[in-house]
Amino acid sequence: MAQAPVTEEHDLQIDTSKMSEGKRQALEVTEAAREATWQHPSFVLELFQGRLREDLILPYPLQDPEDARKGDELIAKLSAILEQKVDPDEIDRTGEIPPEAIDALARAGAFGIKIPKEHGGLGLSQTNYSRSAMLVGSYCGNTAALISAHQSIGVPQPLKLFGTEEQKRRFFPRLARGEISAFALTEADVGSDPARMTTRGQPTPDGRHFILNGEKLWCTNGTVANLFVVMAQTPPKVVRGKERPQITAFIVEKDMPGVEVVARCHFMGLKALYNGVIRFKDVKVPRENIILEEGKGLRVALTTLNTGRLTLPAACTGASKACLAMAREFAAERVQWGAPIGKHEAIAHKVAWIAAHTFAQEAIAFYSAALVDRGGADIRLEAAMCKMFCSEVTWRIINETLQIRSGRGYETAQSLRARGEKGVPIERFLRDARINSIFEGSSEIMRLFIAREALDPHVKASGDLLNSRAPLGKRLTSGLRAGLHYAGWYPGLWNPLPRTFQVHRQLAPHLGYASIASRRLARALFHAMGRHQTGLEKRQALLARFVEIGTDLFAMAATCARAEALHSKDPAAHSGVIELADLFSKEARRRIEEGFRAARRNHDRDAYRLAQEVTGGAYRWLEKGAAEVPFK
Ligand SMILES: Cc1cc2nc3c(=O)[nH]c(=O)nc-3n(C[C@H](O)[C@H](O)[C@H](O)COP(=O)(O)OP(=O)(O)OC[C@H]3O[C@@H](n4cnc5c(N)ncnc54)[C@H](O)[C@@H]3O)c2cc1C
Fold this sequence. Notes:
By secondary structure, this protein is an alpha+beta fold. It has helices at residues 21-32, 43-48, 54-57, 65-85, 88-94, 99-107, 126-137, 141-153, 156-162, 165-177, 297-308, 311-333, 345-374, 380-410, 413-418, 426-433, 443-462, 472-489, 508-532, 540-569, 577-600, 604-616, and strands spanning 181-184, 200-203, 209-220, 227-239, 242-253, 259-264, 275-286, 290-291, 335-336, 339-340. It has four domains: 65-177, Butyryl-Coa Dehydrogenase, subunit A, domain 1 (Orthogonal Bundle); 181-297, Beta Barrel (Butyryl-CoA Dehydrogenase, subunit A, domain 2), CATH 2.40.110.10; 307-442, Butyryl-CoA Dehydrogenase, subunit A, domain 3 (Up-down Bundle); 446-604, Butyryl-CoA Dehydrogenase, subunit A, domain 3 (Up-down Bundle). Strand 2 and strand 3 form a beta hairpin. The protein starts with 20 loop residues before the first helix and ends in a 16-residue tail after the last helix.
């Protein structure tokens, strides 16, 4: 018999015995994302504790020249392939990426960018992978999704993190050559809440195989993949007298008997996404295909996503850069009411917003990629914020660019070309980008995840104080220890003086503001904990405001730091970079102040109550006047 696996339950440091099953599982999901090898603290987590850690963000980690040179080679190859083999509007129209484009990408190594050289990949850094995602994402969302789903969440990433040498030798060369892979977690009833999945992996009597049964929904690359990472429930374990579900990650081959592509799914955008419903019927998978260990699937999935989540922000930043070019050109050329529309303030402000926020996206995306390259850093919060911020900002940037191009923004590139105009594809961009705040962790789930992590140090500091099963003596000791901790920490949060930073004089006040605002944020969080106690987790609107304030502080700090670094390195090549960071910081500060105001005074309870009435049917009268045709 195989040794009993260590369950993720053992890693929990919080008393879960009184929790509902759903709440306990939600907590396990968060805990599973923690990694054991972190040596460096998270800049963002420190921010939530009231500390703007200059040493973690200044100097900004620009890419070193040798790494940049390696990346330049790949970028040059990819640019040529995009130009010669990839027609994004045709791909959008036909719903197919031409095989010769996929072949060319595979030959250039685009399917093995981070796979080590000794296993046939390019062995490049996360930063160079992000640069590639940015390039492809700026041009063709479908191609970006194909490459990203394969190596950000498909087999290469979990194998890199957790694979055995034997698994790496067996799979990496195939993956690097261009055999496509996919990640299968979601099911019809299991979306944001993966712990409740129903796909089952039952061990054979000799324990050498598992028999997989179940159906996975919306599996990107699933219709063309040769290899899948499949998450399934394996037999439960008894922990503290209770049965605990176990999730295990399997590598499954398309050719294994019982794997079936049931349907290809189609969406409002990403028309060439090879996304489908994949059925597993009595699929016999060898035990050697388990990634990490039996029962460690959630850890595999969520740790994979910690880094995997950084590709999408890079691709989003690429799309924003493309929008900046589209908006700039049109705002300068289009003349209405006797002046280029960029001279009218309403349009000018949109252009400025697009430029400043594109720079902020780049600043946080490359900062987080650099953390991965350095290694040993807790990047969960940075990655989740990048994912949330970049997907939401890119959506707004695309929408504003469409508004700037107006009628021409709404018209398809094909139609524009047919009447002799330039085929600017902003309509396609809008359709393709909508999914970004939904998959790989929806914006709502990102906010919850970040809030929980922000509160985690307080939960830890409280120790057994919150453990209802601990003996009274232990709880009192914990209370005393927590009291001492807070007596040292809390008074410092009232320090009203900004810190001074050795950066450009236009940016120093913004970092000074951020240092005060982070203390204010830590105080506000702490007070909210005191006021709402265990009810705080239900106050999602309040928590979301804190998360948004924290995100803007992170973005401000990274933006100012990057601007400082680029300005110092080569001011001529980055003219106006200080103004760009200055404008972003001013915008962010306005949002932060609004956030603090709304955290104090809001109508959250009214809105919640009304929503319950609406979902309960009390406002059906308001729906009258709409066509009453049932959707079939
Ligand atoms: C185009 C596309 C590609 C995809 N690719 C993949 C893939 O390759 N592999 C894979 O496994 N999955 C994939 N997915 C699935 C995707 O990750 C899920 O759609 C996503 O996780 C959300 O799940 P759901 O759609 O079931 O929404 P639900 O979980 O049903 O949520 C519905 C809404 O409620 C919100 N919500 C849910 N729970 C809470 C809560 N506790 N508090 C507040 N709000 C909440 C959500 O944010 C969302 O807005 C893909 C989906 C699409 C559409």
